[in-house]
Amino acid sequence: MLKVMKKKLLVVIAMLVVASGIIFTGSTSTKAKDNDVKYLGKYKLTAYCGCRKCSGKWGARTASGKKAKQGRTIAVDKRKIKLGSKVQINGKTYVAEDVGGGVKGKHIDVFFKSHKQTKRFGKKTGVKVYKVN
Ligand SMILES: [Zn+2]
Questions:
Q1: Domain 37-132: which CATH number of 2.40.40.10, 2.160.10.10, 3.30.360.10, 2.30.30.90
Q2: Residue 132 C-alpha to ligand 1 middle, in angstroms?
Q3: Alpha carbon distance 74, 97 (integer Å)
Q4: Residues 78-88 pLDDT 10s
Q5: Segment (H or E) for 86
Q6: 114 alpha carbon to ligand 1 midpoint, in Å?
Q7: How many alpha carbons lie under 13 Å from residue 91 in its C-beta half-sphere?
Q8: What's the CA-to-centroid distance between 74 and ligand 1, angstroms?
Q9: What's the whole-model pTM score?
């Protein structure tokens, strides 16, 4: 009899712990809603523009249908980052709104309006990337 009571008590305690956990995480996520960032790992960054060499027939039109914009548009691997996601790189927030044949895995292609700027950007590795909610 005593054994059964103990078991019941343990279940009640366990339920209370779970419930308080839900309340706790719930309140923290609402508090941090505007700057809720998730570390995605270290990425390789390259740059592209709307020129024929970079984008072929696509020009500055992105996979999401919008016109690519410097300082906002990045191309990602959809399996890693969902299109429409806000992505933070070096303190700046971009939007994943394009894809690219050469953009696979932990690789992000950053859009620039001129080819000269893509050359200047070059290639960067080991860049910490965050997803912003
Ligand atoms: Zn180009």
A1: 2.40.40.10
A2: 28
A3: 6
A4: 999 999 999 99
A5: strand 86-89
A6: 6
A7: 0
A8: 14
A9: 0.73
